[in-house]
Amino acid sequence: MNTNRLEAFSDGVIAIIITIMVLEFKVPHGAELQDLLPLWPVFLSYLLSFVYVGIYWNNHHHMFHLVRSVNGSVLWANLNLLFWLSLLPFTTAWMGENHFAPMPMAVYCFDLLMCAVSSFLLTLAIFRHEGPASALQEVMGQSRKGALSLAGSAAAIPLALTGYPVLAGLLVVLVAGMWLLPDRRIEQAVGQYRA
Description:
9 helices; single chain; globular; about 75% helix
């Protein structure tokens, strides 16, 4: 099977996830700028989650430019990733509404960890399906960014639970910052693959 339907479905789900997240903003009853101040935790949590969803969409987009075909395992692995991403609106809202309290922050970090694990499992499913001739495997190999993401998200959970939600938040911000730098290997490979 080609990748067209998987990519279109994933793009649609990701667009809905972003839409649901922004709907969590409750319009203040006042008309002054200071009436927006109580929304700062909701806005910060939305911003962080928007960046994460954008990172996953960007990586998914690039990754599937190097994938020739998919099978049932790849489809299920992709659905697993979309499941964990689809929980981000809930975990984001809970974290923002509770001003980054330890338990909501830990649940948010757990969701981010499961997104990272699911992305890793999707990559493995693609590697298995395409075999040694996989263009994606040739380009990615062992991803240090992926391992650091898993470690960072996993470390953020106990930090949040032990009363350091701000440190947990800083850790997930650092992980996101690491992914904002594009992987030139994939972009170069996409250019060669499309040529």
